[in-house]
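Feature request, filed as a ticket because there's no other form

It would be nice if the structure record came with a short human-readable summary line next to the tokens. Right now we just get the raw output. Example of a typical job, pasted below so the devs can see what we mean:
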Amino acid sequence: MSSDDQHAGLADELAARSDDELTELLIERPDLASPTPQGTRVLAQRALSAASLALAGEDLDVLAVAVLEQAIALGSRSTAKTKRPSVTKIVKALSGRADADAIRARIDLLRRRAILWGDKTALCAGEHVESAMPWRSSHLTGPMAGRTGEEIAAMIADLDERPRELLETLARGPALGRSRDAAPDADPSTPVAQLISSGLLARVDNQTVELPPMVGAVIRDEPAWRTDDLTPPPLHEPGVKPRFPAKAVDAAAGGEALELIRHLTSLINVLGATPAAVLRSGALGVRELRRLAKLTGIETGRVAFLIELAGYLRIIDAGFPEPPPPNDSGEQAFAPTSTADTWMHQPRERQWLSLADAWLHMPRRAWQVGDPDRDGNAMATLSAELHDAYAPIQRQLILSTLAHADPAVAVSPDAVLANLHWHRPRQIRRFSRRLVAETLREAREIGLVAHDALTTVGRAYTVEPPADADPADADAAVLAAMRAALPEPVDHFLTQADLTLTVPGPMTPELAEQVELVADLESGGAASVYRITPESVRRALDAGRSSNELLSMFTTHSRTPVPQSLSYLIEDVARKHGQLRVGVASAFIRCEDSTVLAAVLRSPAAEPLALRALAPTVAISPSEVREVIDQLRAAGFAPAGEDSSGAVVDLRERGSRVTVSRARRQSQPRRSAPSAEQLRSVVGRIRSTDRAAAATPVRTTSTSTPVRATGGGESATALIQLALRANRRLRVGYVDAQGSASRHVVTPKVLGAGQLVAVEDGSDTEQRFSLHRLTSVELLDA
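Raw output as currently delivered:
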């Protein structure tokens, strides 16, 4: 069948479809609609092009590919109708490997997408139909069809070293390879010829071979392909009961989210106190990563994951820290931004939402930190080598696959991988066992997966919102799921005799601020433990709290009696706190007890601070207030800062901050798919062009030429007026404001004000055509 015959055959089939069927074709293959095809013949040419067929086959599953392979094998491109495959022949050829109804459904899908066409007794395909397949050879109907993974593994084990090395090379890299030994008349003793003869390699042409996907899966130790059974692999055993109830799964996800938020908060505080150096490549080095892991007490891989998330959200960025930290080198460093302060003061569900959104849309692979790059060097955190624009799509596909499992039922990574390979055979090289396992691990840390099952929050992310839906509505649904998963915040704690506080859950923001001010976190988790020390009590007193306020806070919020040892500690620290007062002179020191000030002037701190007594109770120093307080504390005193009114001021370190050096990189929005209404308009234009092409113009008796006028001049106007008087139809050529040319068969109604008002055939609505945009006008037969 020639190319012109294929175009004509498909064009006739498309012209016979209803408007709804053509609209459905354009919905499934939107690339065919832009620009608007000039008739069904142009539409057929586009549908048969290799590039369009490749897009149409992007999401074909294994059974659809097997049907397409079988149609090609049975002669769908034959010129003789009797040799073309029928639906019955395809169903019979694949019987025993798939359900007959499922096979017919795939045939209908291929016909609906115009990959195949024709009636059920004789199906046709274009010359570029192989572009719709995920591979170049017929693997599902070839020599490997019907073999199990164990049989293929046994065949590979029997190979000599050289043939096995060839297979391993193709399994790790591209599946296609070139060799002179691929020709049918090549030496049969060569490794390539032996592999082709055994079916472990497929011949594409005389110089090209291809590794069957089922062989590659076995070599890569991935779930084996069941080509003897073309039904989709199950995600779990039918009717299996979940190990944990759905509420327990969601609760575990909420706990993971809280731990992630706590770890990121700790990382922000550490980077604020000691910013991390920036490598010349703009990344964060391994030495700094290990230092941050040691200071935060978090595992190195998790710190890298947190930094990648924070970097994408611009919570952490590279810049010049302000104020400069101790031992500042004067060079750029990674430190928190002002966005970090905004994030830390948000409700827990909002913090969770921002982290989950960042992970889903971040075009980077944090789990590859430390892997060797092309040069053999370890990939650093925030390095350009971790960028992958396809990563967000893969995460969404993995979550969508989990969404097909029963709620709260655990799904193994191998089951997810096998399901992805079956539904997306074109992407078999993109989805590896490690990628799926690492993605699921990150999803657990984010709180979208727990106990190997998709959580309610994760399921909310897989729901496809309507095209006209407000993004805020989708966020509201996710936020509602997050609030339900997070444990209720508590406003109390248990005070122990060993000066520790046990908090049985996440604290309310008000209580958290007070507890974190007066106590240090000792262990986090569902129940956090805080320890009270003299230093932590002094920190609260420095912030302006009095001993009475601290004791009142413990009495109000403690569900256990406040131990006497805690009261003694607070009163003892408060008694010594603030005897010395430091102000600005650059700094001054005042003390009601002259003996204490005299001890200060005799202390080792007096010389570096250049202290000078102005009175028995007052001394001054040229040093900054912060330095004076630090030196006095190092000398064993307990000074407090004060302002000009004598009130105690909060001198806690806030940490360094950097200005965001660049806006957060937004993922490039994909071109939105045309709406059904827009595609129906395209179908209307296609029909209009077909009617215009089929119309027969009036011919003069003397020259047998069409009665025609070009342009929008006087002759065209006269011809339109003639059609108005005789109530005849016209075929007009028209160029719209966007420069798109089209032809229409119309019945003129009104001519005036530089416009032609007419009703187009096949429509009841009036259209307006500017006369200066008309390219031709032809009078048609009645």
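Something like this underneath would help us a lot:
Residues 246-273 form the longest helix (28 residues).
Residues 721 and 751 are 8 Å apart (CA to CA).
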